[in-house]
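In response to a reviewer's request, we include the raw inputs and outputs for one of the modeled complexes. The two entities were modeled together in a single run.
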Amino acid sequence: MKHFQRLITLHLLTASLFVLCNSAFFAHAASAPRSQRIVSLAPSVTETLFALGFGNRVVGVTTYCDYPAEARKLPKIGGFMNPSLEAVAAKRPDFVIGVSSATDPVKAREMERLGLKVTLISLASVNDILSSIKSIARLLGSPEAGEKLVDKISLQFDEIKKRVASAPRRTTLLAVGLRPLVVVGGKNFINELIFLAGGENIAGNADQPWLNLPDEYVVAKAPQVIIEAGMGSERGDSAKHWGDLKSIPAVREHRVYAYQSDKILRPGPRIGEGLEEIARLVHPECFAEAKRGVNKGKGCEGPRP
Amino acid sequence: MKVLDRRKMIFVNGVLLALLTLSMVACTLLGPVHLDLSRALRDLSFANPDAEILFRARLPRVLLGVAIGGGMAACGVVLQALLGNPLACPQMLGVSGGASLGGILGLILFPNWLLPIAGGLLGEISWVPLAAFLGALCSMTLVYRFSLFHGRLHPYHLLLSGVIFNSFIAAVIMFLNSIIDFYQAQGLLFWLMGSLSTRAYLTVAFIWAYISFGFLWLWAKGLSLNLITLGEEAAMQLGVETGALQRQIFIASSLMIGAMVSVSGMIGFIGLMIPHVMRLIIGSDHRLLLPASFLAGGIFLCWADTLARVLLAPAELPVGIITAFFGGPFFLFLLYREGRKALTL
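The model returned the following structure tokens for the whole complex.
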């Protein structure tokens, strides 16, 4: 009998220990989620994740993800348009975040079929970019980080808007390639950035995000500023390319800039800085005077060019 | 072989030449932006937008389009005869692939190199066309080597090695496209689709000189081309040195195609379609077919490029889309209407 009692006690002890362990495990799971694993399918998404402070949870990025510097060292899961399905799955991510216009929808569906949680964000406009920052933050469980980052960007926007507020709007052409001439069209967040920077995109009436523009259109629209932001842009080359079209005000007034920058081209958390870069090119006078200590936003009306 | 009818020759070429002249004038005046001709001609000196649109943006384009369209059509005619294949076209020789690869390597590696012409006296041009032309020369040599069969250029070998070489090059280009920068890849795609956009009269002059020389040379071979379409053996019996002729035509047309692809990328369909259309209309005597195809090719590309500039304005469409889009149905219509005649080369 005594033996039987001892056996029961032992069993109860084991069982309670087991329950205890289990409940401890569940309690742990509920209070602090085991660290999330995130795969980013676009350079802008990678930047957003790092800017939100989730950089340490990113376990895979594309070969184009080069900012911030830490992102370069992360394992690569393939290109921007063509991520490798196996490489993504092998990272056992809790979240896969891509861009709706770039990530191959067939691949996204296949990833979902493998049981991965795929989120595609839209980055077609400045509003899209800001709301995607918020939605990524919400998705990863800290909406307040998203709000904070968006507030920071909005402040940067307001600052620039204030500076160029009284400046005359300058017609602008922003190109990413010269041969052939590939420029920013109307359905592009950069079109909005140009407007916010006090410019007006001469190809803004085009329905495409990027388009090939004939030279005659540029001559007819007579842009006052030409920015070439593509890779491998060199100042001398860009100026030479337009040099023979002296009727274009930008050419006559030496406002042709070759300015290679990811901040302008990438729809990520650095668009505030990108906006400032565009504004400095479109309205350098507004920034020069601020340096000399003159009131911001005042005095950069200048003579209408 | 029928004697060449001189009156028909003069009539057909005269009509086409008149149409070409009209088309060139019309296409120079048409475009996505308004052009005030009187204002353009009033002041040519400095910074006159209308003059710049007319003389810098449109005229060089139209001139280039005529040369490329004509050259492509003429090459199509001789290649179809040379290879004895109605599907032969300038894109088939492997030369165009080589030129594309050369151009792309030039674009990727040194996108901003400029070549000073005559020590910078005549300005500078992009070096990409030169890289493309070098690529064309290399691929021409390679395809030629692989097409030699018992020391002679063999049409089937030429056709196969050209096609296979081109698909190999296409794979290399896709590979390059997937490893380069995203924005560079986009520019490359536009370059590949072909465009007649140019402002350099020097390039236009170079292409015209090149194409006219090649064309006249091919035209001089018109009679031999007539004979070779009867079959190689028949031509040989009639006194044509087929081996030498094939070699000469291959080299001449390759050089022309290389130069054309170098400046304007791959503009397809003209070389395939225009020769067939002209055969259906005026018959297949190469002494008449060659100049008529040249003129018709020029007219066609001239209008296709104008449409490419206007249709989706302000965006410019790749001109290859227009050539295929309008050329294809028109060709099928002709084929249907002339269905009673058997197609011959």
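As requested, we also summarize the result in words. Chain A has 14 helices and ten strands. The interface with chain B takes residues 64, 79-80, 82, 176-177, 179-182, 185, 203, 205-208, 210-217, 219-222, 230-234, 237, 240, 244-247, 252, 265 of chain A (CB under 8 Å).
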